[in-house]
Amino acid sequence: MVTGGASGIGHAVVADLAAHGYRVAVLDREAPADGDADRVRWVVGDVRDPDANDRVVDVALSSFGGLDLFVGNAGVHDGGIGVRDVGGAELAEVTRYVLDVDVVGYLLGARAAAEALADSGGSMVFTLSDAAYLVRGNGAGIAYAAAKHAALGMVRHLAADLAPAVRVNAVAPGGIVTGLRTAGGRQVFADADEITATVRAFNPLGVVLCAEQVAPLYRFLASPAAAGMTGEVLRPDGGLTVR
Ligand code: NAD
Predict the structure, then answer these.
(1) Domain count of the chain?
(2) What highest taxon heads this organism's lineage (predicted)?
(3) What is the pLDDT at residue 24?
(4) How far is the C-alpha of 163 from the C-alpha of 124, rounded, in Å?
(5) Does ligand 1 lie within 6 Å of residue 182's CB atom?
(6) How much distance in Å is there from the Cα of 206 to the middle of ligand 1?
(7) Residue 243 lies in a domain
(8) Is residue 238 situated within a structural domain?
């Protein structure tokens, strides 16, 4: 089960999983251009809706006979808004929306998937961000940083709560050019050339990764090779830890 699989990182994760033998049930608010495929079933809905999350688990159980991985990934950005950049009403609206999608959406997916994953001895992998650690310089504003820091806390709490039956880990990428949108619907990476130069200059390795490069990390965290890992975060961000 993958959320936010119609675009960007989620789309690459779905393709990577399907190419490696998984059958995937996807929840996204948009129907993808390529539609249902041999190994992929789509549910159009909103991650903020508990019933939509339950429906995807039902699709996995009824179509595939079980669930062994939940990838919580659907997310939105705040457009880099600082605490004094906008009025109080707008700040509250953006913050509530970002937290609702990026944190509550993850929790509702985890709640929906937990029982089936406990039955299978499966795992969860969430998409965090360098914004789960950094507070300046990566283009994120206060709401996005708050949401990704909160999601990191959620990953650790879930890992403790669901052990030993279910492992819970995360991937925290740096900047990747995708269709990521702000609460207002604006594309964060509209100017791909400018963003690419900014990301490259920001990280010690001078890299700009693409979604297909981070997708295998999700599969690794779900695999027996990661059987001893829970509450852990892989950080494909070009080395920001040593910046
Ligand atoms: P994206 O916009 O290309 O993909 C996000 C997907 O989530 C889209 O298909 C969108 O329709 C879906 N989505 C958004 N809100 C939804 C909702 N309420 N209900 C259902 N589906 C919804 O963006 P992306 O960059 O691939 O983002 C995926 C995740 O990666 C997000 O959690 C984002 O915060 C995180 N992330 C992105 C970057 C980056 O640089 N692109 C870096 C670190 C983390």
Answers:
(1) 1
(2) Bacteria
(3) 97
(4) 12
(5) no
(6) 23
(7) no
(8) no
Question: What is the distance, to the nearest Å, from the Cα of residue 51 to the centroid of all Cα atoms in its chain?
Answer: 19
Task: Kindly report whether the global pTM for this prediction surpasses the value 0.95.
Answer: yes
- Whole-complex ipTM: 0.99
Question: How distant, in Å, are the alpha carbons of 10, 190, 207 from that of 185?
Answer: 18, 12, 27
Q: Return the ligand 1 atom nearest residue 131 CA.
A: 43
E-assigned strand segments in the chain: 2-3, 24-28, 40-44, 69-72, 123-127, 167-171, 233-234
pLDDT per residue over 167-222, tens digit each? 999 999 999 999 999 999 999 999 999 999 999 999 999 999 999 999 999 999 99
- 151 close to 172: Cβ distance less than 8 angstroms: no
SS3 71: strand
Distance 127 CA to ligand 1 centre (A): 9
Q: Is 133 designated active site?
A: no
In Å, how far are 7, 49, 88, 176, 216 from 212, measured between CA atoms? 12, 28, 39, 10, 8
- Kindly state whether residue 239 falls inside one of the protein's structural domains: no
Residue 224 belongs to domain spanning = 1-232
**Mean pLDDT in runs of 10 for the chain (243 residues)?**
97 96 96 76 97 98 97 98 96 98 98 98 98 92 98 98 98 96 94 92 96 98 98 98 90
- 128: domain CATH number is 3.40.50.720
